[in-house]
Amino acid sequence: MVASATMSMVCLSDFEVYAKKYLPKIAWDYFAAGADDCTTRDENILAYKRIRFRPRMLRDVSVMDIRTKILGSEISFPVGIAPTGFHHLAWPDGEKSTARAARAMDTCYIASTYSTCTLEEISAAAPGGLRWFQLYIHRNRAASQQLVRRAEALGFQGLVLTTDLPYTGKRRDDVRNGFRLPPHMKKNHWVTAALAFAVPECIFSPPGSAASCLDPSVTWNDIYWLRSLTRLPIIIKGILTREDAELAVKHGVQGIIVSNHGGRQLDEGPATIDALVEVVEAVRGRVEVYVDGGIRKGSDVLKALALGAKCVFIGRPALWGLAYRGEEGLQDVLRILRDEFRLSMALAEMQNCKVQLSKTWNFCSSGHDSISFSVFSVY
Ligand SMILES: Cc1cc2nc3c(=O)[nH]c(=O)nc-3n(C[C@H](O)[C@H](O)[C@H](O)COP(=O)(O)O)c2cc1C
Ligand SMILES: CCCCCCC(=O)C(=O)O
């Protein structure tokens, strides 16, 4: 998977085209998959295209500052890497390359429970990088507990609990392909920890199947269980409604990721950028709110921040970057997104040009004088 020297990678869809062309079909299909008709997967992208800016002019954009902080840690721009499973399918060094790229670009990487490198390998690959650990709670609670403790001991700085996968969504191409991990990729952190869960055979098991390794009985009370295990901040991923946002705050989490799992779980739910508005309103600044799903351009990042997200995360585009040229390819993806974001911000002439957007930016309907810039949705 080496790119030709003449290939010019200008935007994220160039990496998508490359990945589709060069990845084995079974891996491409797994990365690309959405649930059922893929309505929500595609809507995540379309919803961004319906949002328009109301740019202001003559506001001095000669100095730009796109750094921000998430849960107290500074990142160089407000785009992190969402947790995705099985990076070895994209690049031989797998998550080690992801961790190195995130550190080089000075941003946050959320490592998945279903990483194909061990947590120890990920940490050793990029010491000092900002990393959070994403947890799926398994029926084998002792094993989940052990993963949380290991992540904390290794210096991961946040625990992301994914809430939208009590069972795996029906991804038709994975079913057709009989998707499972190649045997040489079974050396991963659950196996090296001698944990008795997550063997690939049980990844896609339907509700009711005893083969499923995930615990479908997880409830809000399990946040208290997690709290008892770790001092790490808890970020809850998969929230799409004001009701659940309120419950998340009530249960003491430190952050919320508005997410529909890239449209891979419940089909026909809302696009995440649409759900973001409702969640931000419900949270009223009590915890940080982030969003993922469908971010493909710097202007998408700007829209998400303008609507109240503190930071966004990318899933599939990170995998396309890895598939292109491993660590360097992922850095290219992040750099393009960063530069596009900076340009959009400048062209929108955001006052002061600092990424503290959710405080001063809002829907245009709010009509406050202090708002230096606004976005509106077209339906
Ligand atoms: C191939 C793939 C694997 C994923 N694996 C995980 C995972 O292990 N844990 C998790 O919480 N989310 C997982 N997700 C969801 C992502 O974290 C994220 O919500 C989604 O990819 C964002 O949408 P985007 O791909 O359009 O950026 C996965 C998504 C993809 C595409
Ligand atoms: C048993 C669950 C496997 C999930 C694999 C990673 C993931 O979240 C995905 O969307 O794919």
Automatic annotation (TrEMBL):
Gene3D superfamilies: Aldolase class I. Residues 4-366 form the FMN hydroxy acid dehydrogenase domain. It catalyses: 2-hydroxyoctanoate + O2 = 2-oxooctanoate + H2O2; a (2S)-2-hydroxycarboxylate + O2 = a 2-oxocarboxylate + H2O2. It is an enzyme of class 1 (oxidoreductase). GO terms for molecular function: (S)-2-hydroxy-acid oxidase activity; FMN binding. Its EC number is 1.1.3.15. Keywords: Oxidoreductase. PROSITE patterns: FMN_HYDROXY_ACID_DH_1, FMN_HYDROXY_ACID_DH_2. Its cofactor is FMN. GO terms for biological process: fatty acid alpha-oxidation. GO terms for cellular component: peroxisomal matrix. Belongs to the FMN-dependent alpha-hydroxy acid dehydrogenase family. This is (S)-2-hydroxy-acid oxidase. It comes from Geospiza parvula (Small tree-finch).
